[in-house]
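Notebook, p. 212. Picked up where the previous page left off. The plan for this session was modest: take the two constructs that came back from the sequencing core last week, fold each one, and keep the raw output in the notebook itself so nobody has to go hunting through shared drives later. Recording the first one now, exactly as returned: residue sequence, then the C-alpha cell string.
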Amino acid sequence: MSDRYTWCFACGKDNPRGLHLQFEWIGDNCYQTVFTAGREQQSYDGLVHGGIVSTLLDEVMGGYVYEKTGQPAFTARLEVRYRQPTPIGVPLTVSAVVEKQRGRLYEMKSSVKLPDGTVTAEGQARVLLAEGA
C-alpha cells in the first residue's frame, strides 16, 4: 500500500493498534499477504474473531484495486463464507483475484488459507473506484 494511508487499520504502518499487513503481487492477478493473528485478535480461545477474518478478506480485495489503479476504492458489497474456524498463531495466506471488471466496478474473490492449503474463509466483493477516478 501507498504511504498515503499510514493510519489504515489493516495496512497502516503508523497505526499502533493496526494489523500492519504487507502485500505482494503473485503474478499479474493475485494480490496477497501473510498474517499471523495473535490473542488480541481472537474471539473464542485460539480462534480468530470473524470480524478480523472479514477485515482481512475486505482489505486484500480493496487493496488489489487500489494498487492496480492508484485510486481509492470502496467496498460496495461484501459476502463472507466462513468454512471453518481460523486459528490464531498460524501464518494465514490471504489472497485476492479479480474475476471481472466493468468501468469503475471490480468483482473480486478472496480467501484465507492455512499453511496446508485448507481454506477457512472465502470472500466475494464488488469494489468500486471512487468518483472521478
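Okay, moving on. Second construct, recorded in the same format:
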Amino acid sequence: MKATVRIMLKTGVLDPQGKAIEHALAALGFSGAGEVRQGKLITLELDETDPDRAREKVREMCEKLLANTVIEDYEIGIGE
C-alpha cells in the first residue's frame, strides 16, 4: 500500500526558503507570486493492507520522525 505525507510549516511560522523562492521568482520576472511557502512530500510503500492501520502507522512515523510537530503540520494520503 502506498502512503504519501505532505509536510508544511504551520501558519505563522516564518518560511525563509519560501521567501527566497518568492524573491527569486520576482527577480526572474515572474510577478504576482506572493506568500510562497515550501514543504516536503514523502512517499512510502507499506506492507500493510488495511488502510486504517496503514494511516495509523504513518501517523506514528510522522509524530516520531518525519515531521517536527512543533512547527509543522502534515497530511497523510493512503492509496494503492
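Notes on construct two before I forget. The helical segments are 16-27, 51-66.
Flagging for discussion at group meeting.
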